[in-house]
């Protein structure tokens, strides 16, 4: 009896193709937004990157889940380091009833035609012909590995998928890693930020600093107001704003420590937010840039999180720690925070004030189910963050390391974040000032020559660098957090020169944290129209 069973096993085994017998098959579900997929700027590159040993194959098949209709198929027969794969020509009759709107002969690499055909059939069946491309689809991704291993798969409308069926741009604990969240507006925004396009004339991504404010000769919305944040969405879905802490540990949205410039507060400039309890803001209203008082109140961090949830926008959080004030080389306020007079003890107090804000913002976002809406700018290393916040929490967050001007260890700082932060990073803010800045000089690292720090960041990570252009220089100049006005000498600080910034190598893919998202929206359009 045992011999007969063994014979039967051998017979059946050899009836099965070897590639099936030894193959590993994984199937994953993913959502896709048709409006994103068929947008003018959509990236239609597709294929497989993977390693194959003798005679092996790697195959990716994608099906429209509802009808189990094949919409994409690619096979790799040799190791590839760029997205590659061979398709198959199918007759429409081979693909079942779900393919009735396919062409007579369809190549399996043509996912664009397939998904549009599926959409045509869906709208024809439900009678909603006016609703083309307005919804989404659920797809099934089938990965088959035979004597090989897939590293990543690139799928239009979904992005870059790892062999475990997650979004390869994100850390596995992050909300956006789950492909079921792929069509979520928040995932789409962060993917867009993390996938710069060098094939376009320009691919600047704008983060609206303090919202969209100061327009109409200063009569527009006041900075950091509900109106300014909502108006910014005409130009971008990414906000950036400053967070400051009050004496009773409330997180206030404010650029200045002092209240007088920004509101109808009647006290002296030396009344600083970190020395005041949050009830001081009751009854205060924000000023417009022309100094008129609006009907908009100060916002707390939880208010901005509510705006993000309501409008489906994201925020890069710029925490302003507590500092000492120095005038003409002398400390005049808050001197226990002055490293020049109190050394490492003062540096620790500054760091701990930042970390208190960091932890409080995380707590608020967690309570509102909004961690995925945030990316934290930080001048600290990843290891410094771990000392204050558990790794299990950091793994759910996104970060934008800030490389301050004149930082001498900028390459070591960048490498530290590359090695420890990895996929938790969305971009690197490289705050250069002019063409003489070390960040913009060419250098050699580990035997490889790079044009500048922006080039290094892109080649090492595939991510954007970032800059704060500081465009709005009025008759009084620019203002510090202490409400000190400074007139910049633009030869020393050229960040407000749009044409110069676009001429910096890899500058055309930067994140511009700008007070004028409308201008950068137009600059991006101009460079894409002219290709210059």
From TrEMBL:
<dbReference type="Pfam" id="PF03009">
    <property type="entry name" value="GDPD"/>
</dbReference>
<dbReference type="GO" id="GO:0008081">
    <property type="term" value="F:phosphoric diester hydrolase activity"/>
</dbReference>
<protein>
    <recommendedName>
        <fullName>GP-PDE domain-containing protein</fullName>
    </recommendedName>
</protein>
<feature type="domain" description="GP-PDE">
    <location>
        <begin position="204"/>
        <end position="460"/>
    </location>
</feature>
<dbReference type="GO" id="GO:0006629">
    <property type="term" value="P:lipid metabolic process"/>
</dbReference>
<dbReference type="InterPro" id="IPR030395">
    <property type="entry name" value="GP_PDE_dom"/>
</dbReference>
<dbReference type="InterPro" id="IPR017946">
    <property type="entry name" value="PLC-like_Pdiesterase_TIM-brl"/>
</dbReference>
